[in-house]
Design goal:
Belongs to the glycosyltransferase 10 family. It contains 14 helices and 15 strands. The protein has 430 residues and is an alpha/beta fold.
Length: 430
């Protein structure tokens, strides 16, 4: 009955999905805005060159890339201490509905893989939001978050009754793992979502696994000098890798196998892949693997080589452990923009696994040269935000912030693959 009412209210609009015909026409496509001067004015104010843009350009982003980022995304990469963008509304509260999978996602985003519950608004710059899992709140919600990885088909999505709701698709996986169920196509979801929510910084609601932000010269870093002392004391082993997913789209485990044959006992493998040690680091995301503290390097090998795909393997297993990440996943260009200078190694810099192994042994002998890969720690702050190993998850906070800071101009992803696609990944034959 609700669907019939929507069609009656907005009859005459072409339908892509019989439940969403009215909404698509009202919202337009990505980049389109209504003729209302309020939208045009606000869009103009958010796309002009700002201090956020200036910093991003200095960091290596292009003008085109910064133009595609939301205000929230720009602010998340701004130097430490930068005030958040001004709110687009005053004295407004928001209701955020997590569709169907709220209780399951709570383990990570509320409990942080512990038995405790944490407020999603803890240290959040915008707090006047309420979270609900109750589908009866659909008609009241200002934003509805849909976890694509767990969604079995578009039929699981509800009938839409409000054109002003923000429908947000969430994925923390690479485009190769967008869907867990069935042989679904992204095009099945064309015209349904207003905002994207992923690890990529050009998402409307960016939720990266971690960030590194510049510390301005006039702000002291309490960690200066601390890392050097600790490192010289505890770094007794060369390189480690940990993994429970033995599949990949980039040949990472074949590369690890080759490295193991070259490095022998200088490369330790934890987890169930390549007959690794399964007892030293039990648990999956709920308990930290303290043995990683002893290693100088960590193989931050993702399961896919996709745009900006950098996970806890970089931010927790490497940076937080005072190790240098050796990255396979996001391109070197992405890493240069998103990570501190001279803070990582990338497999693309080496002609072969033999060349990488030789360089690791060289750095192991030259302590001064190795230490140079940590000097960034004096001027950058590391922030883990993935919810694993007890770290904070900022997913729901980011939705609240996006509702406050992002443009209110209507928007819809009419062709989802224009934004999220396997075309942003590379397949590697090893």
């Amino acid at each position: 009955m609700a669907a019939i009412c929507i069609l009656l209210l907005f009859s005459g609009f072409p339908a892509v999905n019989n439940r969403y015909s009215a909404f698509r026409k009202r919202q337009g496509t990505i980049g389109e805005t209504e003729g209302d001067g309020r939208y045009a004015s606000r869009q103009s104010s958010t796309t002009k060159m700002t201090s956020f843009d200036k910093h991003l350009l200095e960091r290596g982003f292009t003008a085109e890339q910064t133009g595609k980022m939301s205000l929230l995304g720009k602010w998340l990469l701004a130097p430490e201490g930068t005030p958040p963008p001004g709110s687009n509304t005053e004295n407004r509260s928001y209701l955020i509905l997590i569709w169907k999978h709220g209780p399951y996602l709570e383990r990570r985003h509320i409990r942080r893989f512990t038995m405790n519950k944490f407020s999603p608004w803890d240290r959040c710059s915008a707090r006047n939001c309420t979270l609900t899992y109750d589908e009866k709140d659909l008609h009241r919600a200002d934003a509805v978050v849909f976890h694509l990885h767990l969604t079995k088909s578009p039929s699981e999505l509800p009938v839409r009754s409000r054109a002003d709701q923000r429908w947000i698709f969430l994925t923390d996986e690479s485009p190769f793992q967008t869907f867990m169920y069935g042989r679904q196509k992204l095009s099945d979801y064309d015209g349904l979502f207003n905002w994207s929510m992923s690890y990529r910084m050009d998402s409307d609601v960016p939720v990266p696994y971690g960030r590194t932000v510049r510390i301005p010269d006039d702000i002291s870093n309490d960690d200066v000098g601390h890392w050097d002392t600790v490192m010289r004391t505890i770094k007794t082993k060369l390189v480690a890798v940990m993994g429970s997913n033995c599949g990949d789209h980039n040949g990472r485990w074949s590369y690890v196998k080759t490295l193991k044959s070259l490095l022998g006992n200088d490369l330790d493998i934890f987890g169930r892949c390549l007959e690794g040690n399964r007892t030293v680091c039990p648990g999956h995301f709920d308990r930290d693997c303290v043995v990683l503290n002893a290693y100088k390097f960590y193989l931050s090998f993702e399961n896919s080589n996709c745009r900006e795909y950098l996970t806890e393997k970089v931010f927790w297993n490497a940076y937080s452990k005072l190790a240098v990440p050796i990255i396979m996943g996001a391109s070197r260009y992405d890493c240069q923009r998103l990570l501190p200078p001279h803070s990582f190694l990338h497999v693309d810099d080496f002609a072969s696994a033999d060349a990488l192994a030789d360089y690791l042994r060289y750095l192991d002998r030259d302590n001064k040269r190795y230490i140079s890969y940590h000097e960034w720690r004096d001027r950058y702050r590391l922030i883990n935000e993935h919810g694993y190993f007890g770290s904070a998850s900022k997913h729901y906070c980011r939705v609240c912030e996006a509702l406050h800071y992002n443009s209110i101009a209507p928007k819809v992803y009419a062709r989802l693959e224009d934004f999220w696609s396997k075309k942003d990944c590379t397949l590697v034959s090893v």
